[in-house]
Amino acid sequence: MKLQYSNQNAGDELRTRNLLFIAFYLFAIAMLSICFYALYISAEEYLNTHRLVIGEVLSNTEFPFHGAPKLVTYLMIASILSWFCITRLGRDKLRNITTPIRSILQLVILAIMVIALYESIYNFSLWNSFIIQNIIKGKYNLDSISVPYPHPNTPWNIIFAAKMTFAGFLISSHGFYIISKANKGYDKTTTLK
C-alpha cells in the first residue's frame, strides 16, 4: 500500500512538473510575441515620424478585440506567471548554492526589490496625478500619457512604466522570499523534484 502511494505521489509530481514546463513555455512565447510585435510597430512608427515613446504600443493596443485588456496587461501577467513557474521548477536547486552566494543573491534581490518598489510608487503617483489633471481638463484619453523621464528624447508611457515596475516589484519580492526561505531550510515536501 505504501509503495502504491509513493508511485502515485511521484506521478503527481511528474504531472505537475510537466504542467509547469508547458505553462512556462506558453507564457514565454506570449511575452516574446508581445515584445516582437511592440518592437516592430515602434520601429515602423519611429522610421515614419522619428518619435518613440517606450511602451506606447503596448498601452494602446487592445487584444483580441476592442474593449479587451491592453497588451501591457498581458505582458505583466505573463512575466509574473512565468517567474512563478520557473521558481517552482527550480526551487530545489537553491539547496546546492553555498550560503555566501545565497547571501549575495539575497542582497542583490533586495536592492532590486527596493528600486522596483520606489519606481512603482513613483509611476503610480504620476499616473494618478495625470489622470486627475486630464479629468479636470475634460480629457478622457488616459492611455497616451507619457513622461519625458529618464531622457527627454525617449519618453515612457506611464501605464507601461507603472505596470511593468509593479511586475518587477512582485517578481523581486517573490525572489527575495524564495531565497530567504532557502536560507532557513524549507520543508522538503513542498519541493518539486
How would you describe the overall organization of this protein?
With 193 residues, the chain is mainly alpha-helical. It has one domain (2-190). Helix content is 72%, strand content 5%. It is built from five helices and two strands; from the N terminus they run ααααββα. It has a two-stranded antiparallel sheet. A hairpin with a 2-residue loop joins strand 1 (146-151) and strand 2 (154-157). The model is unreliable at 186-193 (pLDDT under 50).
List keywords for this structure.
single chain, 2 strands, 72% helix, mainly alpha, 193 residues, disordered C terminus, 5 helices
In short:
With 193 residues, this protein is mostly helical. Helices cover 72% and strands 5% of the residues.
Mean pLDDT: 86
Rg, please? 21 Å
Biggest sheet architecture: 2 strands, antiparallel
> Quick one: overall form?
globular
Strand order of the largest sheet: 1-2
The tally of structural domains comes to: 1
Backbone structural class: mainly alpha
Total strand segments: 2
Q: Report the end-to-end length measured between terminal Cα atoms.
A: 22 Å
Helix content: over 70%
Order of helices and strands: HHHHEEH
Question: Number of helical runs?
Answer: 5
Spans where pLDDT lies below 50 across 5 or more residues: 186-193
Portion in strands: 5-15%
Per-chain topology:
Layout: H1 2-49, H2 56-60, H3 71-90, H4 99-137, E1 146-151, E2 154-157, H5 158-184
Antiparallel strand pairs: 1-2
Helix pairs in contact: 1-3, 3-5, 4-5
